Amino acid sequence: MKYYIINKPYEVLTQFTDEAGRATLKDYVPVPNIYPVGRLDYDSEGMVLLTDDKTLQHRLSDPQFKVEKTYWVQVEGIPSDDALTKLRLGVLVKGTKTSPAKVQLLDDEPEIWERSTPIRFRKNIPTSWVEIKISQGMNRQVRRMTAAVGYPTLRLIRPAIGPLTLGSLQPGEYRELMPEEITQLKGIAEKAPKPVSGRKSATFGNKSKGSGKKPGSKGGFRKQIN
């Protein structure tokens, strides 16, 4: 079985072919016969898991297994306590109430890379970062959640799936999972993670050990500059 993660860049499809000629994972990962677990939108960035393990793929994609995905969301404005509470309890998205989420306003900007295309923002309106953890997989769910409480998403990054973090992977870089990471993934795919709460500043976890790289990757992580 094969198990990889990639830091999907902005404006890359989470698939290996595209009739319209847009950038896909094939442009970054030269490993045959592996497939993405779930989706990450074209205009979102961050971790995508790739595998040929169909059982694990199903369990990580199916909300009933409650595998938690972490998102860092740059929003327009600074969410109020009331808005954060609504996100935690669930909001209506296309007539369906989202499941309870773990939500916290980050004290500082995450230590991340500059996006290939800078975000558009209004100078007279501040931006802030919110960490949202969910186990659902509704279409464009996180963006619709923040919009539902009045804070549009400007940038969306997935730094973690379950216990896996991007570590030091640059956009477009990928690496094979270590045996202990595969064991962890299979373990959390069989039970729901324990809830956590509180505010914190965000940084990536332990640096990855060894990576495959797309030629032309640049520099280390740095804070978002608007």
UniProtKB/TrEMBL annotation:
SUPFAM superfamilies: Pseudouridine synthase
UniProt keyword terms in alphabetical order: Isomerase
The keyword Cell inner membrane appears for this protein: no
UniProt domain Pseudouridine synthase RsuA/RluA-like: residue ranges: 2-148
InterPro entries, per the entry: PsdUridine_s_RsuA/RluB/E/F_cat (IPR042092), PsdUridine_synth_cat_dom_sf (IPR020103), PsdUridine_synth_RsuA/RluA (IPR006145), PsdUridine_synth_RsuA/RluB/E/F (IPR000748), RsuA_PseudoU_synthase (IPR050343), TruA/RsuA/RluB/E/F_N (IPR020094)
Region (Disordered): 188-226
Keyword Isomerase in record: yes
Protein name as catalogued: Pseudouridine synthase
Organism annotation: Pontibacter aydingkolensis
Source species taxonomy: Bacteria, Pseudomonadati, Bacteroidota, Cytophagia, Cytophagales
